[in-house]
Amino acid sequence: MQDKSKENPTNINPGGSLGLLFEKAKSHNRLNAQLKNQLPSELAGLSLCLVDDQKVSLVAKNSSLAFRAQKQKSKLLSIINKIDGLTEIKFLSIKVDEKNTT
Predict the structure, then answer these.
(1) Residue range of the domain that includes 59
(2) For a disulfide at 91, which of 1, 32, 55, 64, Cβ 3.0-4.6 Å?
(3) Mean pLDDT (the chain, rounded)
């Protein structure tokens, strides 16, 4: 019988820098899920892209969403600061996902 624990990546516990990378990815996914739950419906297409020190980068699925998000940066920053792990964020940048635009 095949060992199912090897197929599920959440059960993998590598050491060293690969383990740190896994932990960083899990943390990023958790923060992104929390952000998406707190965003208003008009900004629902935003995703967390990068968290670096006191700066967060968000990715918008299209340019009109990015424009709306730029106009509401202070609101977005206050939403982000309510998320555990992002309370010290001071700067926010918004980019357009070039893969989704045609």
Answers:
(1) 15-96
(2) 55
(3) 87
Average pLDDT in the 36-61 region? 94
User: Cα dihedral sign for 60, 94, 72, 80?
Assistant: positive
pTM for the structure as a whole = 0.79
Query: At 30, which helix (H) or strand (E)?
Result: helix 16-38
Sequence-distant (6+) residues with CB within 8 A of 90 are 54, 55
Q: How many CB atoms lie within 10 A of CB 55?
A: 12
User: Structural domain tally of the chain?
Assistant: 1
For residues 94 and 58, give the distance between their C-alpha atoms in angstroms, rounded to a whole number: 5
Tell me, what CATH number does 27's domain have? 3.30.300.180
Q: Which amino acid is at 52?
A: D
**Residue 101: inside a domain, yes or no?**
no
* Residue 32 confidence (pLDDT): 95
Q: Per-residue confidence at 18, pLDDT binned at 50, 70, 90?
A: confident
3-state secondary structure of 46: strand
